[in-house]
Each structure stands twice: as structure tokens, then as C-alpha cells.
UniProtKB/TrEMBL annotation, chain A:
SUPFAM superfamilies: MetI-like. Keywords: Cell membrane, Membrane, Transmembrane, Transmembrane helix, Transport. It is a multi-pass membrane protein. PANTHER family: INNER MEMBRANE ABC TRANSPORTER PERMEASE PROTEIN YCJP, MALTOSE TRANSPORT SYSTEM PERMEASE-RELATED. This is Carbohydrate ABC transporter permease. The lineage of its organism: Bacteria, Bacillati, Actinomycetota, Actinomycetes, Micrococcales.
Automatic annotation (TrEMBL), chain B:
Keywords: Signal. This is Sugar ABC transporter substrate-binding protein. Residues 1-28 form the signal peptide. InterPro entries: Bact_solute-bd_prot1 (IPR050490), SBP (IPR006059). It holds the Pfam family SBP_bac_1. SUPFAM superfamilies: Periplasmic binding protein-like II. The keyword Signal applies. The keyword Signal applies.
Amino acid sequence: MTDTLTVQPELIRAKPEPERSVKRRSKGRAYPIFRVLMLTLTVVLFVAPLVWMVMASLKTNVDIYDPGKTFAFTPTLDNYINVLSRNNYFTFIFNSFWVALWSTIFSLILGVPAAYAMSRFTMHRSAMVVLMARIIPGVSLLVPWYFIFANLKMVGGFGVLILSHMFVALPLIVYIMISYFDSMPLELEEQAQVDGLTPIGAFLRISLPLSAPGLATAGILSFIFSWNNFMFALVLSGANTKTLPVAIFNFVSYASIDWGSLMSAAVVVTVPIMVIALFTQKYIVSGLTAGATKG
Amino acid sequence: MKRHSVRIAVIATAAILAAGVLSSCSSAAPTGGSTAASTGSKTIRVTLANHVWTDAIKAKLPEFEKETGLKVELSQYGEDQLSAQYNVKLNAGTNEIDVMMYRPLQEGKLFAKDGYLANLSTDVKSDPAWGWSDFQSGPVGSTTYKDKVVGVPIITEQEVLYYRKDLLAKAGLKVPKTMAELEQAAKAIKAQNPGVAGFVARTAKNAAVTQYSSFLYSFGGDFIGKSGKSAIASDAAKKAYAYYGGLIRNYGPANVSTDMSWPEAMAIFTQGNAGLYTEADSLYKNATDPAKSKVADTVGFAPMPAGPGGSKAYNVPSWALGINAASDNQSNAWKFVKWATSKKLTLAVQQAGVPSARTSVWANKAGTATYPADLAAAIAASTKNGIGHDRPLVIKVPESRDIVGDPLVVAITGGDSNAAADQASTAFQKLLDAEK
């Protein structure tokens, strides 16, 4: 059921409202005002740091600290030029993208059939084992991992980064997909099998296409988690395979901090993932409402 | 059927684990060894912190590679990220790092105790022309562990007084030479210039410890007494706590945060919102560079004002180069260390604004030509009377800084700093006892 959670709050809010306003007029007026206030407050709280980040990325280092120039300042693109041309940021963007992409793809390939099996054959204890991977803090695994991968001569390559990010992505995907498959009517597959498909055929041809919205949710979330992951990449990446969150610290030196470049690098890290999230969010929601459960 | 598969899984897991343990034992890296003859690969893997020093060295790397025919693979990280790396990688006995830039005072003792740093005692003495005796004794003391040299100091740091020439002139005051004059000047500047603080310095309990240390020494105290016991509740220490806290409380910025490290304190100073500021000299470019500072034209430098114990600033090696004891490329790694710390390169790096640990470079006029004259003089004074540490010399440095810094915050917020010092001293003594 968790897959429909994202739409439920809106449904709940949209429907009972007219009833309430009929019953209690005074409260009917207070509620929208309260709602607008709270929404504004939330938006301001969430957006303010982003706005500050974008503005700081367009300022010089002296202006960033000047409270008088918070909003009125002469914008400059020097920071972006510094980040993108002089610091090889395109390499780091590619690294982040490459690692996120493949760790998501491999996790989907492994995780989705696993989730299907766990859902259909009620293997809840196995599901618990997968969940363990989420419970164990990643830090505690870093030393053994580093030891193993260093002996395998894999540290510094993309392989180890993809593997380590799969550690985060796989349990996530399995859990999202278990609940998705749980909510999918068994009759669809039984019908398919009656019509002559094998169980695997039913999974591939019926369940999998119908679970596209769930796959999208799981895939996007795992992509975002990988994109933002700092800890694993810090230790396991090499000079040429650094991902964006690690590379950002290039602008923090022992005796000087280049805030302007730091902020523009942060914008470079944040913008792609926000764009992806904004566009795909629409897809997820429309996908959910057209889901198989309503079919 | 189910039981059966579970059993197989358990056996298989156990077998894999056992095989892993066995292979790890047999291939365990040698630790604590010296730079014994090892041919090693032609590539040296060097891990450095983001620092002006690193930038200067990076620019010269092609020369080294040409001279020696070796290849340098450089990884660079921020200070905290570097620390996190070392903790994981060295703990796992990595041989992927050959040369490592580390902080002798922050982690030196820990790394040396754990055998991560190779013994360089014979290497440093192998070439008189390179000149080990040329390095200042204070910093060398910090890169020596149990009479073994484990690192070569590359960057030193002293505490100096940053001040605004215009504000002092306006108040008709001379540059403060004693703690009493410093307080007087701070008071006058605050009174004459609304919105401008008389004095600013770090206030976060962990970050402020190093900058407070010079006050502590100048009041005649230290963190650890001669007997090896906690000395942070001594009369001198209590006076120093109250003085440092009082300066910021009475003449500091309004509503001062107790979470300021150097970026915040420096920002207040460089925005023109404070008259006096005690800070590490290695940060001076933040104040003198017009691209970062609004007071670049009016900033002056002076030695730490003298307290009852004299003017005693710290003079410490903030960074050093060490060689990973588990590296199998130690002789080539030493070649890099030797080159990077040679007289020629040290001079070039110092000219780029990084105070070095070599006496000859400081004696050389070219070595101080790029510094503001008053800063060079202040550094010279601090080097002469300097104390070789700016934080408690223990293994658990971060914890000890939290303990020792606590009374500072109490003093800044107007609490009873004497009681806080007594309390901190008890906790600090416990930490010292546990490390014995």
C-alpha cells in the first residue's frame, strides 16, 4: 500500500473539506488561512537555503559575508567559470552520473525479481535480512570493505563505487517493490497462467510492465541516494573517480575557504537532481493513478 | 528441503569467511618497519590536504618527475575528509598511500603509536646537504615519537595579533604590547565605533583551544603541568580563561555566537567589524587580499601581547609529511619527501605565503620579502619565544579539546569560569590517566 501513500494526503485533504465548511463555518475560514500560512512557512524554510546558495554562487567572496549585500549585489559568473573550466567539474559530474546510473540499473536487475519472489512466496524472513543492510550503519562496514577491495585492487575504480552504492540502493528497491507487488492483484497472474504463460512469463509480461510506476519510484530514489552519497565515495574513490559530493570539498582549504566557488559547485550538484526529481515526480504520480490496482 | 539449504548457506558463509581471514593473515602488510631497501613501483602515491602548500608543490611536480623519472599520483582532500580517509585506510593496513600529509599535533601521536608512520631517523640524516639540522627544533620535536623521527615538518604556524591601524590611530593608541593594553584598546575601539567590536577571536569550544593557548602560556600556564597532571585549573589558567572570555564578552561583537571557528571570526574582522583579532598567521592572506577582505589596506600585525608570563605564542608545525609504514615503495616515497622539503622548494613555498620550518629560509631575506614587514617581525618574535604546542599533547586530541575548551565558552557567556575550569580539570585528568 505504501506506493499509493504519495497521493493519499491530497485525496484526504481534497474530499472532506466541503463537508467541514458546511458544518462549522468559523473553522471553515480559519483552515484555509492556516493552511496557506503553514505552506508558506514550509516553503520558505525549505527554499531559503537554496536561494541563499544560488545568490552566494553569484557573489564575490567579500560580498558573501556582507549583510548589506544580501539581496543587492553585482552578480558575477566568475565562480561558475572557476568551477566548470578550471576544476574539471565535468569529470566529476560524469563520475557521479555514471556511478548512480549503473548502481541503479544493477540494483533493479537484482532487486526487482528478488522483491517479486519475496512478495509472491511470502519470504518475510528473507525480507528482514535485506532490511538488515539498511539497519547496519555504513561507517562500520567501511574499514572491512576498504580492506577487501584494496586486496582485490579495486579501490579507485568505478566497480567498487557501483558495488558500494548498490548496498544502499538494493534494500531500498527491494522494499519498495515488495509492497508494490503485494498490492498487485494475484488474479492478473493467475489469469495469465490460465492463458498459458509460465510463472516467469507471467512475471515478465504481466507484472513487470504493470509495475512501471513502482520501478520508476524505486529507480529514481536509488539514483538520488547514489548521487548524494558522500561517505562511500570519499574512501573508495580515486583521484579520477571522485564523485561530486567529494569533489565539492576541493574548495575548502586549510587556511582559506572559497565560498563563492563552493556555492556554485553546490548548485551544480543540486540542480540536476532537482530537475530529475521535478520531472519524474509528475510521471510517478500519473503512473500511480493509472496503476494496475485501479485497472 | 528448507533446513538443508539453510545448512549449506551457513557452511558456505563460514568457508568464505575463513578463507578471507586466512588470506588476510598471510598477506598482512608489514607494519612499523623502516625504509628498508624496497624497489617499489615507479609511481608514488601522495595524499595531501587542500592548502596553499599543496598548490605550490603541485605546480612544481613536473620538475620532480623529470628529474627522477618517477610518477606522482596525487590525491587531495579537505582537512576533515583527509582525516576520515586516514582513519579508514591506515586502519585497514593500506599500502595504497606512500606519502601522507598529516597534522603532527592533531593525529601525530595516534598515528605513531599505532605504527602507521615509518621511521625516518636514518633517512633524515643521510644527506647533510639537505639539512635536517636546519629545521626548527620546536616543530621537529612534534614530528618525533619516542626518539624516532616519523615526519618532516612542512608548515608552521604562530599566533599573532591582527589589528586595524586606522581604528587604533583614531583612538590615539599604540599597538598593544601587554594584555592590559590589549584590553584597554579593545574597550576604546568598542566605545568609539558603534557597531564595531573591540576584539574578536574564535569562540567554539573545540576550535578556540589553539588560539586560547597563547593566552594561557602568556599568563604563565599550560595544559599539562610538569608532573604530567592536568594544569587547566591552575591560577594562571583560571586567569587566562577569564581574560579571554571577558575580552569577547565585554568588547566582542554583540550577541556573539559561541560557535565561531576561524572562518566566522575572520569574516567579522575582514568585513571591518572588529578592531583587534588574535589568530594564526597562516591565515593572513584572508585579511590582506582585497578579493577577500575589506580591510586589506588597514590591517597590521603584531606579536602576541605579553601577559604576566611574557609574550608566549605557540609556534607549531601545523602540517608534516610522513611515509606510510605499510607502503612497499618507501625509498621512492622518501625521494619525494626530500625533494618537497628541500631548501629550494621550501623557499618557493614560503614566498607563496606558507610559513616554513626551516631556519635558513627565515634568515634569508628572499624568504620574508613577500610578507608584510610587520607580520614577518611578529612571526620572528613568536618563533623565538614560541611554545611547541597549541593544544594538549595527548592521543585523544579532539576529546581533550572539547574538555579544555569548555570553560572558555562558560567565560564568554558570563558564567563562573573558575568552577568550569575545576570541573574540566577533573575530566581532563581522567582522560590523561586513561592514556597512561
